[in-house]
């Protein structure tokens, strides 16, 4: 039987290069390697939605009236649409992968409840993500605490084999396997196969300030940024204060690290050589030494060449909201049929139905 591949993405704003190289790219590549289910985790997004709303109110206040804060419901709707458009524009093919909204398969909350009854509190108390999020000031709701149970239900309800995720999600996968085991043991039937995580080769994409790229650090380069806004972001990447005529070190430079995401070996070697010998090919720069401004331009060109065609596709899709809606509805139909099959087995195994 074909491998079943599943992943979820939180609709939490504009997707960035970290999301692309860490997650989206492998999701899209895997469409050809198995039966894929990809969903937009809107139930999960509810755990942080009020915080997102409060942040908009604060940002609007700080911008002295230049920004208008959106209501929580508008934030969620916009973010779900943005993620759907981003994935479709980047090559998600709805004919290959079932692509849908998590909440369009409400059976997943039923399974989450059932799993929660065989899961000890201790397991959830050990979750890093709850602690990380509450440390960042996110309100500690019961939903935030039981987030990993819903995530386990997402994975198990499709009896998934492979779950492509970033490193930060590995603990959630371990917990999912624990919950699958608790269920299978409690009811003496092997309803759930053990899912395995799949990590991409790209470790961690660094942001414009050299820390891990993340929305919460405000150091992102958005996949669909373009024109002057994109240029401003790239030109503002933090570099050290090595004088322009002095040799620079590609192995410690943020610009070079980002460039490496797009470049082949020869291109990476060329940049390292220009950094080490700033007068190399100087005639092409009217005799100027090679500086960080030049490598930033090279990075900008790579970003434009890579994502330019996707931007056009995204604009076309954004003009066809009904098509996008229909596609999500079709994906949900396929996913829900599978979820219902699993719930039949679960209900029978537990004695909920005969
Ligand atoms: P953010 O940190 O911006 O909130 P998310 O936590 O929503 O991003 O990440 C969504 C997906 O993208 C996850 O699978 C995560 O592992 C991946 N990802 C996010 N940031 C990076 C990064 N800087 N490098 C590699 N992968 C990342
Ligand atoms: N927790 C994941 C994240 O923050 C999103 C997610 C929800 C997910 N359910 C999932 C990922 C199931 C993989 C499988 O990125």
Notes on the structure:
This protein is mostly helical and 354 residues long. The chain folds into two domains: 4-206 and 321-350, HUPs (Rossmann fold, 3-Layer(aba) Sandwich); 224-310, Tyrosyl-Transfer RNA Synthetase. The protein has 14 helices and five strands. Helix 2 (42-62) crosses helix 3 and helix 8 (147-156) packs across helix 9. The radius of gyration is 23 Å and the shape is elongated. The mean pLDDT is 95. Adenosine-5'-diphosphate (ADP) binds at residues 10, 12, 18-19, 22-23, 165-166, 168-169, 204-205, 212-216.
Number of strands: 5
| Chemical compounds bound to the protein | adenosine-5'-diphosphate, tryptophan
Q: Could you say which overall geometry the principal axes of the C-alpha atoms support?
A: elongated
Rounded to an integer in angstroms, the radius of gyration calculated over CA atoms is 23 Å
């Amino acid at each position: 039987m074909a491998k079943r591949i599943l992943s979820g993405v939180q609709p939490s704003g504009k997707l960035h290069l970290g999301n692309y190289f860490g997650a989206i790219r492998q999701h899209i590549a895997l469409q050809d390697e198995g039966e894929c289910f990809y969903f937009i985790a809107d139930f999960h997004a509810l755990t942080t939605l009020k915080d997102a709303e409060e942040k908009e109110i604060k940002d609007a206040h700080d911008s002295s009236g230049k920004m208008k804060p959106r209501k929580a419901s508008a934030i969620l709707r916009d973010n779900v649409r943005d993620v759907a458009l981003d994935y479709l524009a980047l090559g998600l093919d709805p004919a290959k992968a079932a692509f849908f909204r998590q909440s369009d398969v409400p059976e997943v909350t039923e399974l989450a409840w059932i799993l929660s009854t065989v899961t000890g509190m201790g397991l959830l108390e050990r979750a890093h993500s709850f602690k990380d999020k509450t440390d960042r000031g996110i309100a500690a709701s019961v939903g935030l605490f039981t987030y990993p149970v819903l995530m386990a239900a997402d994975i198990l309800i499709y009896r998934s084999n492979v779950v492509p995720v970033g490193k930060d999600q590995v603990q959630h996968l371990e917990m999912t396997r624990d919950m699958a085991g608790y269920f299978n043991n409690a009811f003496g039937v092997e309803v759930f196969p053990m899912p395995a995580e799949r990590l991409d080769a790209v470790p961690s994409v660094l942001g414009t300030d050299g820390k891990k790229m993340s929305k919460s650090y405000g150091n992102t380069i958005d996949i669909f940024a373009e024109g002057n806004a994109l240029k401003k972001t790239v030109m503002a990447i933090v570099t050290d204060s090595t004088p322009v005529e002095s040799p620079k070190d590609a192995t410690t430079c943020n610009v070079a690290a980002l460039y490496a995401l797009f470049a082949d070996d020869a291109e990476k070697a060329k940049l390292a050589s220009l950094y080490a010998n700033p007068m190399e090919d100087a005639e092409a720069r009217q005799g100027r030494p090679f500086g960080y401004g030049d490598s930033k331009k090279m990075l900008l060109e790579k970003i434009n060449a890579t994502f330019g065609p996707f931007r056009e596709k995204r604009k076309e899709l954004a003009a066809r909201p009904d098509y996008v809606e229909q596609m999500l509805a079709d994906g949900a139909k396929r996913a829900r049929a599978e979820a219902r099959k699993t719930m039949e087995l679960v209900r029978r195994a537990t004695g909920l139905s005969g």
